Amino acid sequence: MKSQKKDIAKSIIVLVVICLVTSAALAIVNHFTAPVSAANKAAREEAARKAVISEAASFEQLPTDGLPETVTSVYKGLDGSGNALGYIFTVEGKGFGGKIQVMCAIGQDGKILKCQTLDVSGETKTLGGQTASAAYTDRYTGQDASLSGVDAISGATITSTAYKTCVQDAFAAYDIVKGAN
Questions:
Q1: What are the backbone angles phi and psi of residue 141, rounded to the nearest 5°?
Q2: Rounded to an integer, what is the distance from CA 95 to the centroid of its chain?
Q3: Whole-prediction pTM
């Protein structure tokens, strides 16, 4: 009986040591890779902003206070002289299979410069995933807040409606940001 308890205690100690060593190794690896991951994420976000307002020389981040809670970030695209070209809103919504993330650039005239799908990973590739295609996102280019020429994708109405809601939230945020600037 004593031997059995000793074996169990020994097994527990060995498992705890293995867990501690593994956890320490992961923490060390994370310490060295976290800055690289953060830099890569920042570069991807900058490239996405550049894709929706290609003429911008720089981007100024604005606060999201007082904006719809679906708006996760706001940037002002600036030309080389510091003049505003438009605003870029990153908005999250709930699609059919999970979160969708949309980046919407709205120009100084209140019309969409370009929309870009950042994430529809939870959606089906054949239906909801179509919201990531240029054939769908280009429907928004040149639209004003009425979005009068944008229809849902047949068979993917939940995702395309969520996408449209994200764009509408971007317009709501635009009205607030434009008024403040």
A1: -60, 130
A2: 14
A3: 0.75
> What does the alpha-carbon distance between residue 58 and residue 49 come to, in Å, rounded to a whole number?
10
Residues 6 or more apart whose Cβ sits within 8 Å of residue 95: 120, 122, 123, 128, 131, 158, 159, 162, 163
> So what's the pLDDT on residue 37?
83
Radius of gyration, CA atoms only, the chain: 23
Phi-psi map region of 142: left, alpha, beta (phi>0 left; psi -120 to 50 alpha): left
Residue 83 CA to residue 88 CA, distance in Å, equals 15
Q: Which residues pair with 94 in a beta bridge?
A: 99
Residue 155 has pLDDT above 60, yes or no: no
Token pair for 89: 């809103």
Higher-pLDDT residue of 136, 133:
136
Q: Are 61 and 116 in contact (CB under 8 A)?
A: no
Q: Angle at CA 99, nearest 5°, toward 87 and 167?
A: 30
Tokens of 35: 């800055």
Backbone angles phi and psi of 102, in degrees to 5: -125, 140
Name the average pLDDT for the chain: 84
pLDDT band at 71 (very low <50, low <70, confident <90, very high): very high
